[in-house]
Amino acid sequence: MTGRAGRKGESDTGESILICRTNERNQAKLLTLSDIPPVKSCLVGKLQNKSTVRMERAVLEVIGSGLVSNIHEVMVYIQYSFLHAQLSSETTSSQRRRRSSNHELKLLDDIVHTCVEWLVNNEFIYLQQCEEKGQSMSKKVMATQFGRASLYSSLPT
């Protein structure tokens, strides 16, 4: 069995061609007619269990690369992620969306703080208190030498 999908800019109809042998016909039908599973963010495994291994890596990457300098900026970055869009789209009515928006932000805030806490406890990053404010949002986050080494070597966190 072999196939070819249309290429961006070359076709605007989204056609695909699938060539198969007679004995592969049922498999081809199953492939083309089955429901497509929903696309889900891979940043967290199970939100209920707060499995955050990939999120920890994403947070380490934005801190280690210098894209963010405090926890608030980490939250802003995560709000532009597919995970945030996925959580936002799981509600349908505008009233439920307004109520759940706070829930989603609280959930993401909890996940980010769990990740930051884990990264600090395992010495991948450290928090430096800013003098102008005493809140956690004003703490500067920086990667440790170990965190940068893990990041640059692509070793798992």
Q: What is the compact description of this entry?
A:
The chain has helices at 25-33, 53-64, 71-79, 82-89, 94-121, 145-153, and strands spanning 2-5, 16-19, 125-128, 140-143. It has 157 residues and is mostly helical.
Labels describing this entry:
mainly alpha; 10% strand; 6 helices; Arc Repressor Mutant, subunit A; two-stranded antiparallel ribbon; 157 residues; single chain; 2 domains; 4 strands; elongated
Describe this protein's structure.
With 157 residues, this protein is mostly helical. The protein folds into 2 domains: 2-33, no CATH class; 53-153, Arc Repressor Mutant, subunit A (Orthogonal Bundle), CATH 1.10.10.10. It has helices spanning 25-33, 53-64, 71-79, 82-89, 94-121, 145-153; strands at 2-5, 16-19, 125-128, 140-143. The strands form 2 sheets. The protein has a two-stranded antiparallel sheet with strand order 1-2. Strands 3-4 form a two-stranded antiparallel ribbon. Helix 2 (53-64) crosses helix 5 (94-121), helix 3 crosses helix 5 and helix 4 runs antiparallel to helix 5 (94-121). The chain is elongated.
